[in-house]
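Researcher: Sequence of FAD dependent oxidoreductase follows. Predict its structure.
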Amino acid sequence: MKQANELQADILVVGGGLGGVAAALAALRAGRRVVLTEEYDWIGGQLTSQAVPPDESSWVEQFGVTASYRRLRDGIREYYRRHYPLTEAARAKRDLNPGGGHVSRLCHEPRVAVAVLESMLAPYIGSGALRLLQPYRPVAAAVDGDRVEAVELAHRDTGERLTVAAPYVLDATETGELLPLTGTEYVTGFESGKDTGEPSAPDEAQPDNMQAVSVCFAVDHVDGDHTIDKPENYDFWRGFRTDFWGGNLLGFRAPNPRTLEPAERTFEPNPDDDPLSVVGDQRLGGGDMNLWTFRRIAARRNFTPGAYASDITLVNWPMIDYFLAPIIDNPDAAVHLERARGLSRSVLYWLQTEAPRADGGAGWPGLRLRGDVTGSADGLAQAPYHRESRRIKAEYTVVEQDLSAAVRGEKGAVSYHDSVGIGMYRIDLHPSTGGDNYIDVASCPFEIPLGALLPVRVDNLLPAGKNLGTTHITNGCYRLHPVEWNIGEAAGALAAFSFERGLPPRAVGDDPALLAEFQDRLTAQGFELRWPDVAPY
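Model: Prediction complete. Tokens:
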């Protein structure tokens, strides 16, 4: 008999980031009963609790994403039009960029995305088809041979335990938390070039060499002195430098990710620019030379006069990258996450007190930490921004030579017979815990193979985010917002399709007729499985 603290579902999705929400929606559309869990106060992961505006391809306004991701984007703009005091020009702009940021065509405040995501899930919560458990994190799993039977969850604040049993389990956590709990084979860090054949890989595997994590935060600039208390580790970070950085980490000089040459960034709060003229297009460059407008999420001139006293900008800049140690599979992970938070506080304190100004002065004490924007008590993002996850050992692993523009040239990326979606971003690896500088490689628009969603052994667990079968290198372009959404949505659809037939997901990939039927279903739901003829960048 089921105990009081046990739940059952057709499909369990652990992790409520973009991949987890998309997975849940796909399964719910197929009529399945779903339990979705999330560790933080907001669903949405990198878009919300991690406070990272969407990183998307240059063609996102025309094609290259699933229909449901487009509904998310459209919903964000419509939310602004309905609820915010936009200027008439901003309200009329079809491709409104609320923040006028250069990193994306849709820089916006994270709580708007939360509202839209919650509205997408709301009908299913109301009908009882979806149970959202929040804030819960996975702590254990019951496994029988090659099958995951149930996952035990703990409430983040009270420690209360719940167990959820389901015939299909999706790992949509930010770092692949279910993989070690279930004994699913996985890899971390940098694979060996001897094994993968990747041009940018080292000769020997480096499992502890992972991309930096970042703890983002939002600031505006208003009258008054809003300087925070000096962080206890400020002096350490103030003097910290590496051989390849070109200066101190706390400084406006940092490597250009694409050339690796040290480049001076500019910073000036509340410039007199026209946010409606900004074009967030990665083909034109990374957009990070002007730090204020780089990830600006609210441009005051998009709103009626007086509505916003200042722009709001999101600090996810080179100087907050924490690469002293990995977070994954490290017994001291909590210590290093707190040090990463200390680095972010130190960056803010430096900006407020010592950062060089163009007028010869130092510091902007008017910079104000906006924890109300990120939804946190301490002012920083609720969750660290994890660029890299544990990754399943998959039936097919995407490697650099599958999509590198330098390798593939005019042929374009490899086209997979079992494509379940598409994505596009440069291979964008930040400085790493192994001492690597940026690794930035032009990419061809690529596909997502079903084989990368299939663990080599476990039958009923699927990755639904950055934990699919990529390498350290190709994770650099499969980790971004619309790609994570597509991965999760495909995993949710695959679990629902498999549930209908009582089959393990790998059976769909093994049977040409089943695969064709599944791909037809995806296409009917608004998935794009192939790219039109577009150029790499």
